[in-house]
Every structure is written in C-alpha cells, then in structure tokens.
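Structure (tokenized):
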C-alpha cells in the first residue's frame, strides 16, 4: 500500500457556539490541513496520484474559506466550526473534487491543525 499526503495552510476566524470558555469568543487560527490518499499500485510512471491535481483541489477549498469568519459559511452556520468538524468538511469536499483517482486509490483521512501542537483527524 502506498500513501501520499499534501498540506496547505490558511487563516480564518471562528467562535465555538456553546463552548464554556475563551474559545466561545471570536478568535482566529493559522490552520494547517493535510489530506492523505492511499492505494495499492502505482501508475506507469511510478505515481499513486499526481500531487499537482490533489493540491489544486485542496487549494480550491481553502480559497473559499481563507480569511473568512467560518461561522458565516456553510456548513458552519449550523455545524460548530470545531477542528473535528472542519476535518470532516475537508474530507467531504475533497472527495467530491477528486472523482478521477486511479483504480484502488482513495482519500483516507483529513487532518486539521489549529495550532502547531493540536490537531483533529477525520477518517470515514
């Protein structure tokens, strides 16, 4: 099994509704997102997937939320914009954008870091 991962960064603000503490207030993070794809075989030139294609898809998602207040965007108008929910959001959005992956290759996880030392992982 092979695994490839890409990472990108962005900055956004949010407020955790119902949280009893300072994170209930509006604040921001410099987020880091990692998307990982696994598959059993490489193509004819030795690639599982083209990094460029995966990065393009991830950058398209980030472009929509970079320097935004997440609580004002779907699905975070109703779903709390926690790192956990953001990881699931990235997974779902990437799955929709990566429909033409090679046979057997699949997106396996999304990781969202809020800080250098705290992250959330979503695996279906």
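Design, position by position:
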């Amino acid at each position: 099994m092979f695994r490839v991962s890409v990472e990108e960064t962005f900055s956004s603000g949010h407020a955790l509704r119902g949280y009893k503490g300072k994170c209930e207030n509006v604040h921001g993070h410099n987020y880091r997102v990692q998307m990982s794809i696994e598959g059993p075989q490489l193509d004819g030139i030795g690639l599982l997937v083209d990094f460029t294609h995966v990065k393009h898809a991830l950058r398209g998602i980030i472009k929509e939320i970079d320097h935004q207040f997440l609580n004002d965007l779907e699905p975070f108008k109703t779903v709390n914009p926690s790192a956990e929910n953001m990881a699931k959001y990235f997974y779902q959005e990437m799955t929709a954008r990566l429909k033409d992956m090679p046979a057997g290759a699949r997106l396996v996880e999304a990781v969202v870091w809020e800080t250098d030392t705290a992250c959330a992982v979503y695996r279906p």
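Reviewer-requested clarification: The chain has a mean pLDDT of 96. Residues 61 and 93 are 7 Å apart (CA to CA).
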